[in-house]
Structure formats: C-alpha cells, structure tokens
Amino acid sequence: MGESSKKYGGFTLLELLVAITSSTIILGGFLIAFSSLSKSSRLRDKELQSLREGASARMKIEKALTGASLAAFNTIANNSTASNVPMLYYYKFNDDPEAKLKEYGYFYVDEQQQSIDPSYQERLDDSGNPLKMENLYFHRIVVSENDAEYNPGKDDANFPKAEDFKLREPDREVVVHEVSDFMVNLDEARTEEADKRVSYSLDYQISTNFFLDTSSDSTANRRERIFKGSSYVLGKITS
Question: Which of 3-17, 86-100, 116-130 has the least mean pLDDT?
Fold first, then answer.
C-alpha cells in the first residue's frame, strides 16, 4: 500500500495535504481582505474626523469673534515659539467708560508638542525620524480685574500683543489636526458710534494634509483636503 493511501484519523495523507493547503489559501485571503478592510476603515475614520473639524472651525471662529472690538489676521513673529506664525486674533472689552480688556484669543498654526497635547501622535519617515506635524489651535484668555492685562486700553503698556502671546500653553485647543496652511482675509466695517457695532467679513482657508499610516510618508497614504468658508460677524465698538 502506498504512502498516500495510509489513513490519518480517517483521512489519507493526500487528503490531509489538500485540506491544509486549501485552508492556508482561504486563511491568507481572509487576512489580506481583513487588512484591506481595516485600512479602508481607518482612512474613512480619518476623513470623517477631518470633515468634522473643518465644519466646526467656522462655528468656532464666528463664536470667538462675535462681540470683538478689535480683530486681525497677520503672520506674527511670535516670541514664545521664535517663529513666524499665521494668526487670527481678537480682543473684547467691557462696557464701562474705560473699556477695560475682558477677553482675548487667537487661532494659530503650531507644531504639536508631546508634553502638552493629548492628541499627540508621532509619525516617522523612512529613516525613522519624526515627521513635523502642525495643527490649528485656539487659545482663549478671560481677563479678571486682578490680572495685569485688565487695563484701560490697547495703548497701555500691559496690553497683550500678538508677538507676546503664549502659544504653547497646556489648555490650548486643537481645532483642526494636521494643517499645512491657514489663511484669512479679514475686512472690518465700523458703523455709527451710536450703534456701538463693528462688523467683520472674513474669508478663510484651512489646508489639511494627513497620513493614513503612522510610520509612512508615501504619497499613496497621504490625503489632502482644503476647507474654505466665508463669515459675517458682528463685533462691538467700545469707548
């Protein structure tokens, strides 16, 4: 009797080999399909996150600038990062005759920091070096009467200036992840003093550039998306 006709648990050796080979092919195909599905799911989740962030950015900008007496967009030589930073910033004052500063805030692009950003995620290039990843952040400061910034007006020595804004505070908020560019065209129109109103018309563009894989910078795993929007916001004229 030949070797292939010997019985192994009721099966011949040939039957066992065929069964093992078939199972391996089926399992391998399943694993490939599962890997492809998992990758597709991760990409879909990343794209959905990017869409949600892009949509919410407009609402956050509008909410921040509503009631502002001063607003501007500039590329600022910021002292806290020692770099030029595209920044949209605003100031709000209270209604007393001296118009003391009560709030200010700023949207800006900065590199993520492992020490302060809960959403920090390291990505490496093909040489194992960390890729630079930047986000669009927002930081809002509420000023109390005990703060040095609580002063009569923008010409006071303690008035917070954009070049001195502290951009790497632990309470900064990520508005959009993996941003490659942030631009705003901001126009201001002031009404009659009696109305105590100023309006801001702004067109903005946020460009994102995110990677699907955590350790690859190949263009095959790279997704680019541009968010554009226009807003009209009412501010407030203070004395």
Answer: 3-17
215: tokens are 């350790």
Alpha-carbon distance of 155 to 159, in angstroms, equals 7
| Nearest partner of 166 among 81, 88, 102, judged by Cα | 81
More confident site: 25 or 134: 134
Domain ranges of the chain: 58-234
| SS3 category, 216 | coil
Please say whether the beta carbons of 176 and 208 come within 8 A.
yes
- DSSP assignments along 98-152, one per residue: T--EEEEEEEEEEE--TTT-TT----B-TTSPBPP-EEEEEEEEEPPTTSTT--S
The predicted pLDDT at position 122 comes to 78
Cα separation, 56 vs 54, whole angstroms: 6
Buried residues in 43-75 as b, exposed as e (16+ CB within 10 A)? eeebeeebeebbeebbebbbebbebbbbbbbee
Tell me if the pTM is above 0.90: no
Contact of 140 with 166, CB cutoff 8 Å? no
> What pairing do the DSSP bridges indicate for beta strands 7-8 and 222-234?
unpaired
- Rounded to whole angstroms, the Cα distance separating 186 from 233 reads 11
